[in-house]
Specification:
50% helix
């Protein structure tokens, strides 16, 4: 029985890094009954530069045994306000994915699965595929890897091994607030030592003063 892998690239959205810099990312929707995929339905967002990275990575991992399809060319005059250019690029990205998903050798590449079915940045994808994270490829696909850690030490260790400064992922941008939140939650969940001592002194005072 033939297995189906359907992929769509849709819903372009403008993202702003700051007042002067912006980019477009696209939603990648995947629906499949293929045994090659752990998750049968997924949706992630990727930008054009991440597609460029994926093609280069797949080409290197395949040891040049596979001729990869071309991406839509990078246009120096690409405009975020030009609907026709955006639509053409979006269709080209979908065609690229449709073609690589027909290749059994490429379907065995962990980087492809993480690109299509996880929220990891490209730097984290490389780290996860190389076994340098505390979560496996399957765990990253099923759910965000970092969210499964509950201690500040585990979180900081994972960030230091799999994040870098040029990541576009929101999980990599500012880890410090999440570490602080963990510390605050930990402090709130446990009674303070001073509070326990005050309670004990109050109890002793009441006991000694009673007839």
């Amino acid at each position: 029985m033939q297995q189906i892998i359907s992929v769509w690239v849709r819903d372009p959205r403008i993202r702003k890094n700051d007042f002067w810099h912006a980019y477009i990312d696209y939603e990648i929707c995947l629906h499949t009954d293929s045994v090659c995929f752990t998750k049968k339905v997924s949706s992630v967002r990727r930008r054009y530069s991440e597609f460029v990275w994926l093609r280069q990575k797949l080409q290197a991992n395949s040891l040049l045994l596979v001729h990869l399809p071309a991406l839509p060319p990078k246009n120096p005059f690409f405009s975020l306000n030009n609907a026709q250019q955006i639509t053409q690029r979006m269709k080209g990205l979908q065609t690229f994915l449709e073609q690589i998903l027909q290749n059994p050798l490429l379907l065995s590449d962990s980087c492809l699965h993480l690109f299509l079915q996880s929220q990891l940045s490209v730097s984290k994808i490389q780290a996860c595929a190389a076994g340098r994270t505390h979560y496996s490829v399957a765990q990253a696909v099923q759910g965000c890897g970092l969210r499964r850690f509950h201690s500040a030490e585990d979180l900081q260790k994972d960030i230091s091994t799999s994040c870098d400064s040029d990541s576009d992922s929101s999980e990599c941008r500012d880890p410090e607030p999440r570490i602080k939140d963990l510390a605050i939650n930990k402090a709130e969940s446990a009674p303070s030592l001073d509070h326990m001592r005050a309670s004990q002194e109050e109890t002793l005072s009441c006991t000694c003063g009673s007839p």
